[in-house]
Amino acid sequence: MNAPNPLLAPAPCPRLERAINRMVRDLAAPLTLADLAEAAHYSPWYLVRRFQAHYQTTPQAFLWRLRLEVAASLLHWAPRMPISEVALAVGFSSAATFSRAFNRTYGFTPSAWRRGTPPAREWLRRNLGPISYQPGEEIVGTDADFNWSFTEVATRISVEEWPAARMLTVREVGDYGRHLENLFLELERQCQQHQIPQPDERFGLIWSDPATTPAGRRRYDAAFPIGPQVRIPRGMGEYRLPAGRWAVFHHSGLSDDIGPRWRDLMLTWLPQTGLVPDPSRPRLEHYYEYGRRDGRYDLCLPLMG
Q1: 127, 77, 6, 68: which is closest to 262 by C-alpha?
Q2: 59: closest CA among 101, 119, 15?
């Protein structure tokens, strides 16, 4: 019944992170070591060597664990999605193979996880940690610190089709929380160093589900959109956001209430809609006025179909 052992959070390596982005984007595909090496611009041999030095595991083992974590996320947030479809969505050939792998890793079956049996609830409690979906200090005990109803959330949500976009990114691997404000400062610092103009808006790209990915391996990008002519400086990253469908939760308030509002979106609104999150794209936090502790922001959930 143990969770997968969380790794220490090393400083991100942009080339290795490109390989991981490829894993996320094409999770259902039969990815080979050569595919991942191509994404990182390494030879297959050197990719394995760099992965083992940086993450103490191989690319193949990392991909295996990622598939199971994304599957656990889909089982959690898309309760109407059949287990067989979840298995195919993350690259398993059959529900039986998937169930054996899931049980071997987590200590309970996919159906037990979805039902919320006591072992599954205990795993979730330990894995979420003390920060995820919790309010910041400034709103504890205020009117913002409560669970919204489905109707309250639904009146603030629009389902939108977005075009493709190109983003400049810097990444942190570790837990989610207020400390990620420093990542946006690092993005600003690097852009100033390389004389890259910055818009007022910022995006936070949430690559990991805190309900299923241990804190030491959660990935987050600070980002903003760029045009096709911008060159990516050494040490920074690029993400090409594909066109797709999004549920956008529009809100204005202190940044300290982002955790509870994500909780309202994911726990209160999503399960009642029948919509399925798209695991190939990150969740987004869209900040319209960078640098303000209060103001307008959107929580954006990628949707399948």
Answers
A1: 77
A2: 15
Distance CA 58, CA 64 (A): 10
Q: Tell me the C-alpha distance between 165 and 19, whole Å.
A: 19
Residue 281: C-alpha distances to residues 119, 130, 194 (Å): 30, 26, 28
Contact assessment for residue 135 and residue 145, using Cβ atoms and an 8 Å cutoff: yes
Each residue's pLDDT tens digit, 74-86: 998 888 899 999 9
How far is the C-alpha of 271 from the C-alpha of 76, rounded, in Å?
Answer: 9
pLDDT digits 0-9 by tens, 122-169? 988 888 777 777 666 777 777 667 888 999 999 999 999 999 999 999
Which residues share a beta bridge with 284? 205, 300
Please report, as a single letter, which amino acid is at residue 196.
I
* Cβ–Cβ < 8 Å for 283, 302: yes
Q: Tell me which amino acid residue 205 is.
A: L
| pLDDT category of residue 291 using cuts at 50, 70 and 90 | low
Q: Average pLDDT for residues 226-235, to the nearest whole number? A: 90
Positive or negative torsion for Cα 210, 212, 216, 217: negative
